[in-house]
Structure formats: C-alpha cells, structure tokens
Amino acid sequence: MRKIYFLLFLFGSIQLNAQSDSSKMQWFSDAKLGIFIHWGIYAVNGTSESWAFFNREVPYPAYMKQIEGFKAENYQPQQWADLISESGAKYTVITAKHHDGVALWNTKMNKLSIPNMAPVKRDVLSPFVNAVRKNNIKIGIYYSLIDWSHPDYPGFRGDSSRYKVKDDTLRWNRFRHFYQGQLDELTKTYNPDLYWFDGDWEHSAEEWQSSLVRQKLLTNNPKAIINGRLQGLGDYDTPEQNFPVTKPSNRNWELCLTSNDNWGYRQSDTNFKTPYQIISIFADCIGMGGNLLLDIGPKADGTIPDEQIYLLKELGKWTKQHNEAIFGSIAGMPSGHFYGSSTLSKDSTILYLFVNNTGAKNLVIKGLNNKIISAHVLGKGTTITPNIVGKISWSPVPGLVHLEIPNEAQNEYITVIKLTLDKPLNLYNGKGGFN
Ligand code: GLC
User: Fold this and answer.
1) How far, in Å, from the CA of 198 to the mean position of ligand 1?
2) Rounded to 5 degrees, what are φ and ψ at 96?
3) How far does the centroid of ligand 1 lie from the alpha carbon of residue 25, in Å?
4) Pocket of ligand 1 from Cβ distances under 6 Å
5) CA contacts within 13 A on the Cβ side of 88
6) From CA 323, how far away is CA 88, in angstroms rounded?
7) From ligand 1's centre to the CA of 316, what distance in Å?
8) How much is the pLDDT for 140?
9) Which residue has a Cα nearest atom 8 of ligand 1?
C-alpha cells in the first residue's frame, strides 16, 4: 500500500514539475520582444567582442589593454531601461561576461572584472538590473561558459589552446569550480528571470556538467528560464542572425539579431538595418510563434549609439500602435494562405495580417473557412469591406478574401489589418473543385 502511495506521490510531483515547466514559459511566449546588450571592453577600440584576439586580429595584451579605457563616465542605466521600455520590449539580456572573461559585476571568483580593473571602478551591472526591474522588464543575464582568459580554461586562441580536458582533469575541475562559482554569485545577487548561456559548443554536456548546472539554477528559482545553449538542457532555441524562412522549431524560440553587423560597439560598422527591415523581421518572428532579441552595443562611455536609439524609438512607435497584434498573440496562419506574416489572438478568433508597406494594398487570403465579422486597419480604425471572390455555392472551397487597404491608412513600415472572425480560425487545406 505504502508503495502505491509513494508511486502516486511520485507521479503527482512529476506531473507538477512538467506543469510548472510549461507555465514558466508563458511570460516568455507573450513577451515577443527583448533587447540584447553587448557591453564590454571591446567597445573601447571597437574591436570584435572577444573574437578579436581569438582570431588574432589583435594581440591578446592589446585587446586586454582596452580595459583601461572603460570609463563609463556617461552611463545612465535608467535611460537605458527607459529606452528599452519605449521600444515595447518586455525583457532584456545583458552580457555579464563574454568569452574574454571580463565580468561586469564585482566577482569574487577572480580579479578580472570591470569594478576591479577598469577606471570606472564600480559594478556596472547592478544599477542596470535595478533600473530594469523598476520598469517592470524581465532581466536576462548572458553568461559565456567559455572563458578564454582564465588560466585553467583549455581554449585560448583559435590556433592554440592551453591543454586538453582529458589530459588534465584536475585543471578542468578547477575551472568548473570557478565558473559554477560565478554562476552562484549571479544567482544570489540578481536572481535573473532568464539565463542566456553562450559558448557551450566548446565542451560536452558532461564536461560542463550541464544537468547539474540546470538543476542548481532551478532549485534556486524553479521559474528561471534557460536558453538553449547549455548542451541540450535549455528551455528554448536561439537561432542566431537567421531570418526565419520556415518555422525554426516547435518549442519556444528566439531569433537573436544584431542591429548592424556586430554585437558590440564598433565605430567602423555603420551598416545599420532600417526600422522597416527590423520591423518586418520582427513580424516574421512573431508570425511563426517566436521572439526577437534585438541587439544594441553601447559605447565604452556608457552611451548608446544614436542609430540604435533611433531604431528602438521607431520600433516603439510601431509596437505601441499595434500592441494587441503583438503581445500575447500566438503564431498565425501557416504559409500558403496569405503572402505575409500573421498572428492570432489566444482564442484564435482575431486574425492580424501584417502587410509590408511596399506599395501593396490589395491582399488575398486563401482557404479561410470563417465569416468575417469586421475588418479594420489596426491603430487607425479605418474600416475595410472584404470582397469574397470565387465562392461557388456547392463547393467546399472557401472563396478568396480580397481586402483593399486605402492609401491614407497605410503605416510607414508595416500596416496591420485586424479581422474579427465568427469562430476560432478554420482553414481549408483541401483541393478545389472536382478531383
Ligand atoms: C555568438 C558569438 C558571440 C555573441 C553571440 C550572441 O555565439 O560567439 O560573440 O555574443 O553569438 O548570440
């Protein structure tokens, strides 16, 4: 009997765990937009983040010397947080430590940190975390598992490494102790809503002790979300710079994307995407049920480049006007029904069509087995009268829904059409007419 109770208890708690697992992802699925921040000593001379010495573009000592220029004299964390709020983003992820090993916070695990070695002489992470929390934005901590500066880490430069794990397990154990100690510090100090790992590819799950790390983070906070770069033990996928053509995954996913060509600040990189390009990529992401994590790279003095401020503000105007089509929506129609992206309300009775403003004003939806109760241009209120084309009374094939957007109702970037349906979305996928 006892055994049965025990088994029932076990089964119950397994179920509970599974439940809390999917429910903890809810805020993330609803959030849609996050702002990624790469801030580190690489901003001083505008070298590529960590990779500059790894790839021998810059000698290691010259790369590290940049720390002497990290003054952060114009750093206003509240302004950063306000700009993030203005963009409409619901979460942010900041590089607490990149592959170069330089910690933004006051780590006690080694000496390589901004508070300890840079002229700013203080922890620059905590004030940002506080400002973000004040604005009700979730905080994600990016932490590089790789640490190319640590004397006990095997990898150093692309063409030379210190040792191999299998040849010196004691040394590797020392590194593991170090990195897991830093994670404990981050957990205790910030209790992040999300851990964004990077660099897992250099070692196996077993070598990193991924499952132990996951278990520790979740014991501290069962609601913490872990990105997919922990050798298979994360909660969601992180395609990088990969514009979604087809839906990347059936579980949660997030596209991380630079606003120009690099993650960190580089004066020489002026190849910024336009607001239209970013908004249309964003619409594609949410239409396929994903999030966008858009990156900015503040300068070493703590200011955000003007071009990135502009992008975030333009994005903010658009997200504000189209709030209901974005936040809390779910993926829209699969391809084939509409030449564009779409989202749905959670109960699937409202369909939002994203129309790229490339001059197209005549839209067609195919195979829509619903009655349209109303059609409007979102944020403008302009009513549209659908024109049903080719509906034959005896055929099960729904007519084509033609919608014409008046010129004056078009959005500068992407126009959103709101269709209220008679019942949850019902798509017809069969063949037409007689076979
Ligand atoms: C890559 C790079 C890194 C960057 C990250 C962001 O993994 O190593 O430099 O920070 O992607 O996704």
Assistant:
1) 7
2) -70, -35
3) 23
4) 38, 49, 198, 240, 256, 263
5) 27
6) 9
7) 25
8) 98
9) 199
Q: List the domains of the chain with CATH numbers.
A: 2-321 (3.20.20.80), 330-421 (2.60.40.1180)
Give residue 258 CA to ligand 1 midpoint distance, Å: 10
Cα–Cα–Cα angle for 412, 286, 341, rounded to 5 degrees = 60
Q: What does the pLDDT read at residue 433?
A: 53
Which of 51, 198, 237 to probe ligand 1 with, by most ligand atoms within 8 A of CB? 198
Q: Ligand 1: distance of its center to the CA of 402 in Å?
A: 43
Minimal-distance CA residue to ligand 1 atom 4? 263
pLDDT at residue 432 in the model: 58
Atom of ligand 1 nearest to the CA of 48: 9
**Which residue, judged by its Cα, is nearest atom 5 of ligand 1?**
198
C-beta separation of 60 from 51 below 8 A: no
The residue with tokens 């708690």 is 13
- 53, 263, 296: which to mutate for ligand 1, most atoms within 8 A of CB? 263
Name the residue among 200, 201, 199, 287 with its Cα closest to residue 243.
Answer: 287
Indicate the Cα dihedral angle 207, 211, 214, 219, nearest 10°.
-130
pLDDT value of position 359: 62
Give the max Cα distance, the chain. 78
- Copy the structure tokens of residue 203: 């070692």
Q: Where do the DSSP E strands lie in 159-242?
A: 160-161, 194-198, 225-226
Predicted structure pTM score = 0.93
Q: Look at residue 244 in the predicted model and tell me its pLDDT.
A: 81
* Segment 238-282, tens digit of pLDDT: 999 988 888 877 789 999 999 999 999 999 999 999 999 999 999
- The DSSP output letter for 294 is E
- Edge to edge, the sheet with strand 33-37 lists 225-226, 194-198, 138-144, 91-97, 33-37, 291-296, 254-258
Low-confidence ranges of the chain (pLDDT < 70): 1-21, 358-360, 431-435
